[in-house]
Amino acid sequence: AQSVAQPEDQVNVAEGNPLTVKCTYSVSGNPYLFWYVQYPNRGLQFLLKYITGDNLVKGSYGFEAEFNKSQTSFHLKKPSALVSDSALYFCAVRGSGNYGQNFVFGPGTRLSVLP
Amino acid sequence: GAVVSQHPSWVICKSGTSVKIECRSLDFQATTMFWYRQFPKQSLMLMATSNEGSKATYEQGVEKDKFLINHASLTLSTLTVTSAHPEDSSFYICSVSETTYEQYFGPGTRLTVT
Questions:
Q1: DSSP state of B87
Q2: Amino acid B97: pLDDT
Q3: How far apart are CA B109 and CA B90, in angstroms?
Q4: A-chain residues within 8 Å CB-CB of B42?
Q5: In this predicted model, what pLDDT tens digit does every residue of A71-81 receive, in sequence order?
Q6: What local confidence, expressed as pLDDT, does residue A37 receive?
Q7: Angle value at C-alpha A108, between A98 and B5, nearest 5 degrees
Q8: What DSSP letter does each residue of A12-73 carry, written as one string?
Q9: Cβ pair B101:A51 closer than 8 A
Q10: Does A49 contact B101 at a Cβ distance shorter than 8 Å?
C-alpha cells in the first residue's frame, strides 16, 4: 500500500524568501507524484506532477518540485514566496493499479507567507 | 485541465433528511469521477469511484446505502447523503481524471447537518 508523509503541519516564511514544503512517499513500483494547493472552502488546484523524466518538475505559479528516488522525496519549492501563496498544500502519490483507488494524499501542510 | 463544478457549494439540512450533491465535468466527458470527503484540518479521503452507467465502487468503511452515487451521464455524477446526521457534516469534493495521471477537482460542497 502506498502512503505519503508531510512532516510539517505548518511552514512559515517571509515574503520574498524561498520556500520548501516537504513530502516523502512510499509506493510499490514507479511513483506518480503530485502537488495540489487548497484555498479556504475551495477544492484542490493542480500545481505539478512527476511521472517520468527530468527529476526537476516545474509547475504553476512559479512552483517546482524535485523528485529524489533514493530519498523517496518530492519536495515542493519556490524561489520567492508571495503572501498569496498562503494556503494548504497536499502531496499525493499514485502507484500501480487502478488509478482512482490508489490516489493517496498526504495530511497537508499549511503554508503562511508573512508580509 | 478539466473544469469541474459542484452544486450546491454549501448546504444546511436537518438531521434525518437527505441531501443531493451534483458534480459536473464541464469540458470533458468523464467515464469515471471520484468522490472525496474532507474533515476540518484533515486530508482528503476517497469515498468512492463513480462509473458512468454502472455501480459505484466504494472504499472500505464507506456505507453505500448511506452515500448513494449515481453517474447517469458522462458529465454528471451525484452523491446523495441519505438520512443525514451531524457526523456526516463535512466537505465533499469530486474529481475527474483526463488521463491516468492527475485528477482535477471541483470546488467542493460544505454540508452541515443540524
A1: G
A2: 80
A3: 8
A4: 107-108
A5: 999 999 999 99
A6: 96
A7: 65
A8: EEETTS-EEE--EEE-SSS-EEEEEEE-TT--EEEEEEE-SS-SEEE-GGG-EEEEETTTTE
A9: yes
A10: yes
What percent of chain A has pLDDT above 90?
Answer: 74
pLDDT per residue as tens digits for the range B2-25: 889 999 999 999 999 999 999 999
At B106, list the grid cell: 471541483
Please, are residues A109 and A89 in contact by the beta-carbon 8 Å criterion?
yes
Mutating which of A30, A35, A36, A99 best tests the B interface, going by the most B Cβ atoms within 10 A?
A99
Q: What is the pLDDT of residue B55?
A: 87
A16 is written with which cell numbers?
520574498
How far apart are the CA of B111 and the nearest CA of chain A, in angstroms? 11
Question: What pLDDT digit, counting tens, does each position of B40-96 carry?
Answer: 878 889 999 988 888 899 998 999 999 999 988 889 999 999 999 999 999 999 998
CB contact under 8 Å between A43 and B49, yes or no, is no
Cell of B66: 448511506
Interface probe, candidates B102, B105, B109, B112, chain A, greatest A C-beta count within 10 A: B102
